[in-house]
Design a protein that fits this description.
Strand order of the largest sheet of chain A: 1-2
Number of helices of chain B: 10
Structural class of chain A: mainly alpha
Number of strands of chain B: 6
Oligomer: heterodimer
Largest interface: A-B, 53 and 64 residues
Largest sheet of chain A: 2 strands, antiparallel
Strand content of chain A: under 5%
Distance between the termini of chain A: 48 Å
Structural class of chain B: alpha/beta
Mean pLDDT of chain A: 86
Order of helices and strands of chain B: HHEHEHEHHEHEHEHH
Radius of gyration of chain A: 32 Å
Low-confidence stretches of chain B: none
Mean pLDDT of chain B: 92
């Protein structure tokens, strides 16, 4: 029944057997591959097996290739090759202008981090950056070389400065300011008919008190320089409760996210359970419809084949272990 | 006698799988109440005058697309329907293929012209540093656009944008982790006083409550937030009705999965205490 129920309405256009057009309906070959890889990853829930290993290695390989190409294109081709070529063209144009007249206007400049500079200077600075990149690679040949330490030191310094300026403000200064709130919010109103409880003065007072007490207790949990007397110990224990509630909330959200991923996979498999992707629907003259067509759709057929092959593989493994036990 | 706690965990996987498949197959939908955070996200976009420029940052990859995709699609619909101009950037290398696909599908529905109404600048490496650079000078961070590889000076939309984020009225991040919304707030939101809103994954949601409403004007927390937002956008945009119904269908599955987990937690605790009582006798 489930394969039939999972069938969703057919797409606007029939899928092609193979298509690289991202805007088109997903192709049939792609559908089979998607179903195979999804079920191969899920097969790990039974135990580690060759299908899972294949999917895992494929994922790592494709991911590495994609990230390498994307970073090469945006990190090397654009900012080095294209940038230097453009700056060089402007430099050549400027030299022609300078050679042709005594007083020259209209010299072309190059953008460098938001500042307009001479093309020659831009090329020189970009070459320094390039040199730093090459120096980083020296580590591949000589682990103790001084060369990679210079660019690394520059990177650490720049990164720390950038992080510090922005994050001190957003994660510390403003957060401290946010804790200094009036106990009753100025926008709160008396709880009367038509006023939602969460907008009322009582709720505002209660929630801000919980916030204040929770904040003080959590902070007191992290005071380690004084002996835990009854007051500090009690506040610390209450702080732990608040922390546990926070962790519980985070865990709840994590579960929510993971279930959402599972539902998305099921929905994706359901979309390929349509007759358009089924081997049974490929030949209408045979009259394979309904349940039989569903059984020959990618998620069901791949799933069944995978279960059979996993059973054969697990039996083989068990026999092998039994023989090894007997001989041992 | 074996304790119920010795149950093979694969039975739990199977139970969860069955609940999700059966409930999804039944196809029921569920309308859910809209939270304050989602309403603020929606209102922030609605409050912008037509023609304003919005930067939409794709900070996600295929692994998080299941959660981010619905809210990202709904946001594109909302922005374009409201006649806002969109600069699309990405700080995750795997994001551009998604964004190109969505814009190619959605923009023609509203008669939008590439370069005039929206532009795709693509991925730039460097995480926080790249975000800081984008804020400081968009035109020196990118030399060309991502779709046609045209110089930025040839793109009409960008004529209204200058350094220090001037000309951009709102920053929207579809954030799945690092780098993402927290880095945008630190590097751009506070520095250039630009309003920031975001859609995010469930794992990151709890961290965002501390930033609302001063540093973060609104946010869509996880799949639930996306469904609520789709309900709001769907009131005026028929194009998202299919997506909204699908998300409402998934929300019911989500609720039943959570019920199963709560049931399993209760079962585990009861079995544990009963086992302990039996052991002490």
């Amino acid at each position: 029944m489930i394969p039939l129920l999972l069938q969703t309405s057919a797409g606007a256009t029939a899928p092609a057997w193979f298509s690289l057009d991202t805007a088109a309906t997903p192709d049939i070959l792609g559908g089979w591959i998607v179903c195979f890889l999804t079920l191969a990853v899920f097969s790990f829930l039974y135990r580690d097996n060759p299908f899972y290993k294949l999917a895992e290695h494929l994922f790592v390989g494709v991911g590495a290739a994609w990230y390498t190409l994307e970073n090469y294109e945006t990190g090397i081709l654009g900012p080095v090759r294209e940038y230097i070529i453009q700056a060089h063209d402007k430099l050549a144009a400027n030299e022609q202008l300078l050679a042709g007249a005594d007083a020259v206007t209209g010299l072309q400049l190059v953008d460098l981090g938001g500042f307009q500079v001479q093309p020659g200077l831009a090329i020189a600075l970009r070459c320094v950056a390039l040199l730093f990149s090459v120096m980083l690679l020296v580590r591949l040949f000589s682990r103790d070389s001084w060369a990679p330490r210079w660019p690394l030191a520059a990177m650490v310094g720049i990164y720390a400065a950038i992080k510090m300026t922005g994050e001190t403000q957003s994660k510390l200064v403003i957060q401290i300011k946010e804790t200094m709130v009036p106990l009753i919010s100025p926008s709160a109103v008396p709880w009367t008919d038509g006023v939602r409880f969460e907008n009322s003065i009582g709720f505002s007072l209660l929630s801000n008190l919980v916030f204040l007490v929770g904040l003080i207790c959590v902070l007191s949990h992290f005071i380690f320089t004084y002996r835990r007397n009854r007051l500090l110990g009690g506040m610390s224990r209450l702080g732990i409760v608040v922390l546990m509630l926070t962790f519980g909330s985070m865990f709840g959200f994590t579960v929510l996210g993971r279930i959402a991923l599972l539902i998305d996979r099921v929905a994706d498999l359901a979309s390929y359970a349509q007759p358009a992707y089924s081997l049974g629907a490929a030949d209408a003259a045979v009259g394979w419809t309904g349940l039989f067509a569903s059984l020959l759709s990618p998620p069901v057929l791949v799933g069944m084949l995978m279960i059979v092959l996993l059973a054969v593989w697990a039996t083989g493994q068990r026999n092998q272990q039994a023989r090894a036990g007997e001989s041992g | 006698m074996a304790s119920p706690l010795d149950i093979d965990r694969r039975w739990i996987f199977l139970a969860m799988g069955l609940v999700v498949v059966v409930m999804y197959a039944l196809g029921e939908t569920e309308t859910i109440p809209v939270s304050e955070y989602v309403q603020s996200y929606f209102d922030e976009i609605e409050s912008l005058p037509e023609g304003s420029i919005v930067m939409l940052s794709a900070d996600f990859d295929p692994a998080s697309a299941a959660e981010i995709e619905p809210m990202y699609i709904a946001t594109i619909h909302h922005l374009l329907r409201h006649n806002l101009r969109v600069i699309n950037v990405a700080t995750w290398p795997a994001a551009p293929p998604f964004t190109q696909k969505y814009f190619s599908e959605i923009a023609p529905q509203y008669g939008k012209v590439y370069g005039v109404d929206w532009v795709e600048l693509g991925y730039t490496p460097g995480d926080d540093v790249a975000m800081g650079l984008i804020g400081q000078s968009l035109k020196s961070t990118y030399s060309t656009d991502d779709r046609n590889h045209s110089p930025l000076r040839d793109i009409p939309l960008l004529a209204d944008v200058s350094d220090s984020f001037r000309g951009i009225s709102l920053l929207v991040s579809a954030s799945a982790g690092y780098p993402g919304i927290l880095e945008w707030i630190a590097q751009v939101g506070g520095r250039y006083q630009v309003p920031v809103i975001c859609g995010t994954t469930a794992v990151q949601t709890t961290a965002l409550f501390a930033y609302y409403p001063n540093q973060l004007k609104g946010f869509l927390g996880a799949f639930t937030g996306a469904t609520q937002y789709l309900q709001l956008v769907g009131e005026a945009t028929e194009a998202v009705h299919e997506e909204r119904d699908e998300d409402q269908r998934r929300m019911l599955v989500q609720s039943w999965s959570h019920l199963l987990i709560i049931g399993l937690i209760a079962f585990g605790n009861v079995a544990y205490f009963l086992g302990r009582r039996r052991a002490t006798r």
